Predict the structure.
Amino acid sequence: MTSPSARPSRRRQRSTRLLTASLLILGAALVVATAALTGSLTLTVLAGVAATALGAAAVRITYAEVVDSRRDAGRDRAEQAQAYRRLAEERQAEQAIYVADTSGRLTRHQATITRLEERLAEAAAELAQARRELESERNGTRRLTAERDRLSRSRDDAEERAAMAIVRVAELEQELDVVLSEWRAGQDAPTRKHA
């Protein structure tokens, strides 16, 4: 990119070129006007040749200025295009990183949810089994009074396991709720970012 000090000097140079071309045209007009006032054919012809030469020099200076202006404008456009391309590449890289990060977090949350759902199903099965065992134990105590002590201990164990299973189910449900809310927040985050 050009420095700020280079632009003013280029503008001064352009102004000088255009001023020189204008002065050449003005000089050609004065030479022709002076020759026309003298009335001499030789001076008029010489003035015409001089005016033509001065006009050609002015056109050449103006042409050089136009070419330089177009070249400078083309260079500026090329620099802007390169800067935009670099910016687009940076944005694309940032977007790819963001998508990969978000996808990774989403996959981890889904894996955690699946794991917690499996644990919850296992705990529910354990609870159902413990309840069946408890019910079986209760029925057995009514029928067999001789084995009352042994069945009483088994029942206490089953109740303890049922209580632990209930506590574990409650804990797993809480964990599932937390993970589901994080997962939902993760799904909403890309929408808010791009909105």
Remarks:
- The radius of gyration is 47 Å.
- Confidence is low (pLDDT under 50) at residues 1-5.
- The helical segments are 6-38, 41-143, 148-194.
- Residues 141 and 152 are 8 Å apart (CA to CA).
